[in-house]
Amino acid sequence: MKIEKPKVAIQGIRASFHEEAAIRYFGENIETIECNSFKQTFESLKKREADYVVMAIENSIAGSILPNYTLLLDYGFPVVGEIYLPIQLHLMALPGVKFEDIKYVTSHPIALRQCVDFFDEYPHLKIVESSDTAACAKRIRDEQLTDTVAVANALAAQLYGLDVLERRIESNKRNFTRFLIMTQHDNVEKKPANKASLCFQVSNKVGALAKVLNIFAEEGVNMSKIQSMPILGKRNEYNFYVDIEWDEQKQYDTSIRQILKYTHNFNILGEYERHDDEPSSTPKPHRAERSIRKYINIRRNA
Ligand SMILES: O=C(O)C(=O)Cc1ccccc1
């Protein structure tokens, strides 16, 4: 079932990186449902207020966002897609504010961590962490703060009417965040998949995990990620979250049949098409970029 204008739940507000990811995945014709927490995004999917959830799962600097793995397992909504977003960060302030006027820098902790080299040069600036980059930009606009800058994306500067004082202040120009897209079971479109996210346990015995990984290797299935999470209250027991990719469906089917024999609590969190775009730091005059601009205009005029 193709939804004309999907309702997409994100943690954070419009123009956050989560919304940027949603626009890049779905295009500009979406309705964003702003939520205060990742759990709330899943709740909104459960209540069918949202058609999809877009949720960050890992970041090239901060690593895996572990609590989000637990949400995937607890709610059991299928992962139907992924998107890698290059995180390009700008320093923004109210129009007229000069760099010399600034005392405070506000942003999401991940965004701030990505700009350490820039801020090392200005030790007098006080760093204030917040729940989302766009909310920082909005607060500067709403409260007319003249001593504060936000670190956020170009979308936030445009939507909240801030001027960019310094572009691309991220330390690593090739940093990216990977987002997953979840939906309700009955919304799943049957598209050919070449990637899957799995979760399973193995017994605490010599070679138990190696056996599973060897099956993937023997079938020519590539493991692109492995993450372990302790199981609450059970010493030395872990859930393994594994992402795998394949060329031929048969390779996947055979390896799943095999590994079922060597795992327990086996779950397929989702089967989907892998996002192949090389995460690039060079801003191309990109179709998504144009759609973001168009989208801002639509929203402003709405
Ligand atoms: O704060 C935001 O805009 C978010 O969506 C969270 C986030 C922050 C930095 C990198 C990726 C996601």
TrEMBL record:
GO terms for cellular component: cytoplasm. It holds the Pfam family PDT. Its EC number is 4.2.1.51. Keywords: Amino-acid biosynthesis, Aromatic amino acid biosynthesis, Lyase, Phenylalanine biosynthesis. PROSITE patterns: ACT (PS51671), PREPHENATE_DEHYDR_3 (PS51171). InterPro entries: ACT-like_dom_sf, ACT_dom, Chor_mutase/pphenate_deHydtase, Preph_deHydtase. Pathway: Amino-acid biosynthesis; L-phenylalanine biosynthesis; phenylpyruvate from prephenate: step 1/1. It catalyses: prephenate + H(+) = 3-phenylpyruvate + CO2 + H2O. Residues 7-184 form the Prephenate dehydratase domain. It is an enzyme of class 4 (lyase). GO terms for molecular function: prephenate dehydratase activity. Residues 197-277 form the ACT domain. The record marks 177 as: Essential for prephenate dehydratase activity. GO terms for biological process: L-phenylalanine biosynthetic process. PANTHER family: PREPHENATE DEHYDRATASE P PROTEIN, PREPHENATE DEHYDRATASE-RELATED. This is prephenate dehydratase.
